[in-house]
Amino acid sequence: MGSYEVNIENLNIADSYVEITVSISGREIYYPRISACFYSGNTNRILPMDLKYCDDKKAVAIGKFDIPFLFYSDSSAKDLSVKFLFSDGRADNIILEPDEKVVIPAMKKRALLHFIKSSKREKLKIFFGKFISLMFLPYRHMKVQPNKITFLSNRSDRLTGNIKAVFHEMTKIDGVDITVLCKKGGIKSSLPNIFKFFKLYATSRVVFVDDYYHFVSYVKKKDEVILIQLWHACGAFKTFGFSRLGRDSYLRQSSPNHRQYDYVVVSSDDVIPYYAEGFGISMEKVIPLGSPRCDALEDENYKQRFKKNFYKSNPQLENKKIILFAPTFRGGGMGNCSYPVEKFEIDKILSSLGSDYCIIVKMHPYLTQRPVCSSEFENRVFDFTLTYDINDLLFVADVLITDYSSVIFEASIVGVPMLFFAFDLNEYSRDRDFYCNYSSFVPGKIVYNTAQIIDAVNHEDYNRALIAPFKKRFFGATAGHATDNVVEFTKELLK
After folding, report:
1. Are 207 and 152 in contact (CB under 8 A)?
2. Distance CA 128, CA 439 (A)
3. Is 80 exceeded by the pLDDT of residue 1?
4. How buried is residue 315: exposed, middle or buried, by Cβ count under 10 Å (0-12/13-18/19+)?
5. Element spanning 125, H or E
6. pTM score, whole prediction
7. Residue burial 2-13, b: 16+ Cβ < 10 Å; e: rest
8. Which residue from 241, 324, 413, 420 has the fewest beta carbons nearer than 10 Å?
9. What is the pLDDT of residues 63-95, one digit of tens each?
């Protein structure tokens, strides 16, 4: 990274808040990102700072933080020291220390004052959390079974992705008692299963989740229970969770969401700081075991079986050049998102390409909108959103057209050429933000309109050389071995 200087321009402790202004200067700064790292004993937490100023050689950021809610538990919080996580946009993240050690006195949570100052939405969550915790009290006396493993998911009515891959491998282990509890939707959809959840959460030695699972934020976990997050995506480049403080997020610094995890499984060392920040946990809890659902992408036998079955079911696509269109959504999330399907002009694209080109549409599961085409091209367009897994479709794709979707990580394993249709890059960057510079990060060619899509496909201009180093950076040696890594790690926890 070279040398950088960090200076505390201002540090003000008032009431229960600390406000810090920090400057980073030195080498050329390309796309800076500055976060405050708070330490207390063996506990640490990363929180984003707002960039206020930047030129070629200096960046200034400011952050205001609620001291009592820096850590999930007060038990180990002593005086706090602060360092800074910094990226200049061209290399890895580094921890920078100020010239003189900065110590911030720890403060205990004042629950009543916090409640009074909370928004109406937060007050309702606090009430609900207290009510759920009271309901859970009788279950706290139940004994944890040392061989019991539970898989929880509200992404679907069945296990999918990372958690599915780990589940199938865990079932091969003798003497393990496995239970699955899946229900797609939010907290209302999960309420009928609340008592089953209580029992499982109180008696399981290891509990896996693959997304934000509502109940675990409201129920204090027993110390003997180990909660592992198998996040549904791999890699990281869009900000999420606590990284979105101060933006369009309901998440507040004091929120218990995500902070109960004992471990979070990620694909590589490179993304550890991002997940630690996003989930509000210590970096030591983020372990680079790989992305289990991606193992199949390295399995040549699996690939050939899928392609054989795919073309058997879709003979009209055999010997065709397949464009896989798989964008992500705009908006807040499930029930509050959209995609401007009119931007993807199928008629113009197919009319400018050879007759051997077809388009497979794979929209994000949160989206109901679909791109449309005229009757002239309807026999060359296939909507497989509800039919096939996106990872499997990569095996038959000649090129992937996406935007800000995490599918780019899986595509790098398969080696599929990529086009990035980023017609709204400025707006998306402003509203969603990235952990990195999008333009220099993505492993393919960026296009902004239909004409550029057509030109790139016709000339097979995809910047393929970017794929291999991207894969190495975000998967390293874990590609193809992630499921085994997680299973072996879990077996150690059960001993």
Report:
1. yes
2. 43
3. no
4. exposed
5. helix 120-136
6. 0.90
7. eebebeeeeeee
8. 241
9. 999 999 999 876 666 789 999 999 888 777 889
